[in-house]
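User: Modeling request: complex.
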Amino acid sequence: MFKTVEWKNNTVVMIDQRVLPDREVYNTYRDCKGVAGAIKDMVVRGAPAIGVAAAMGVALGALKIKARDMKAFKKEFDKVAKLLASTRPTAVNLFWAIERMKRVASDNEGLGVESLKKRLVAEAREIHRDDIEINRRIGKFGGNLLKDNSTVLTHCNAGALATAGYGTALGVIRGAIEGGKRVAVYADETRPFLQGARLTAWELKKDKIDVTLITDNMAGYIMKKGLIDAVVVGADRIAANGDVANKIGTYTVALLAKEHGIPFYVAAPLSTIDLNIKHGDNIPIEERDSTEVTHLKGKRIAPKGISVRNPAFDVTPNRLVTGIITEKGVVRRPYANGLKALFSK
Amino acid sequence: MFKTVEWKNNTVVMIDQRVLPDREVYNTYRDCKGVAGAIKDMVVRGAPAIGVAAAMGVALGALKIKARDMKAFKKEFDKVAKLLASTRPTAVNLFWAIERMKRVASDNEGLGVESLKKRLVAEAREIHRDDIEINRRIGKFGGNLLKDNSTVLTHCNAGALATAGYGTALGVIRGAIEGGKRVAVYADETRPFLQGARLTAWELKKDKIDVTLITDNMAGYIMKKGLIDAVVVGADRIAANGDVANKIGTYTVALLAKEHGIPFYVAAPLSTIDLNIKHGDNIPIEERDSTEVTHLKGKRIAPKGISVRNPAFDVTPNRLVTGIITEKGVVRRPYANGLKALFSK
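Assistant: Request completed. Predicted assembly structure:
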């Protein structure tokens, strides 16, 4: 099985998700700038995977700091954290992971610089291990929600490639299958970056899970035909009221699900829930470069000089969400109470 | 200005819509097989343009028939009509145009073979001329529905490229602009064939109409932001009850429009209305080759051997349609009465 992101001999190794499924290439990053660039350029993507990569980027940055006294170290360390935080604005796991690393640094100043570096590397590796375990728990809770012989539609890739492994939305599918259920998947291709066509299709096929690819605009047709029993997607940030920011197009899929009486589940770890943001309208939405829309594999598919919008995410209002599947169980309406309660469990 | 399809020295010339916007290439067809192939392979597409091309294909086929007596001629002529009717199943304009040509042949047997051939060529050219005139009338009726300073979302290409010229949905936009209104357009790219990105963006830009390209799954985001005042699309077949078959994804756009309180208009000539079909579920929906989804410009974008669905159209139920704009005026609910009345006007 492939590894999405890995700490290896004081480097960070990531599968290059830009060239999948054509080639399975692993890039090695030796400093935090490299990791920051990889996050920005979407070598690695998916909220939990971005969190893990950012933590490893922070650890790698810390390792390379030459300062020997703690004060000078902390000054450089803050720059490292800032660099990684500047890569992408929407997925809150990025900030969550960086904050966790910063807390470890603050709490362990007494260790001295060299020991703190080791402690930071250990923390990043723990975030990685934790993430897989969290996904397995999400998969178990979510798997119980799916019926035997069901067909699930998913949007974008919230799979092993979007996490340290196993996946959130695809973790739910894996959990159901491991629980003995037969589950087939429809994958939206997810323009413009084609995470569905390139990544979800690839990793499910590799796992021998029945997957059918459609373009994003076919989901309505497929649902109207009665072919979908449930929708499961991931999330990049969940507001305190249960509004969900996720890959562009998720909002439309949620509306379609509502229209057709299909349950719409969001699978995400607690690190995706941002209780500091009251509702979805306040979640910052990244707008990416227009060439993602106008070009495919380096080839132009639209007229030169055309105006383009390229919001990378949208917000699905909580009223369209049937349940949020976390590692601590499934939260249902009203979300404000349920989500808050997760953090005191 | 470009010409979508044209009768020229007893050949049919069409702009090759598969290579737009990269290249403006005109293909010349000298027999009905060539025209049939061009319709099937989407050199020409768009319901009204398919109708015009089919009529010209029938005329071209008739011209090439060697039989000198009417009985033998008619036998060959039926084969020509059958060939053209077998090209694509959903757009009813194809069958409408072929029927019109067959009626001319039946009604004019007395002319003798050579004169009948000329009569058929004249009829095809009249269908072409009529279509432009019809579009202009649609544009005038539809243009009145748009407010000044409005932004219109359109899906696929129902423009000059989808008709003999001027367009249906884009005809409405042109009509509004010619009426002195300021109109900006958002164009869905329209996967898998990218009619929006390649064709609508191209022809509107050529006409200096303000156009912004988005991927299909961004329409919900853009509407939620309050950026869209009206949706206008074309149609491939309208059932007697007002259900509308149009390019895959139209149904989703209509649902999104309803959700956001945005009027959803369908612009189409009477030749798109099929009173023989009671409701949309009975409209045949073409499923096209999977490579349209898995490949772009000859390059694979999905894993090898992946299962794919590729329905080319979907059906928007009449309850989501604010109005159907025809060359005889705008029809509103209840559609069954209004559509029927059009044909006795």
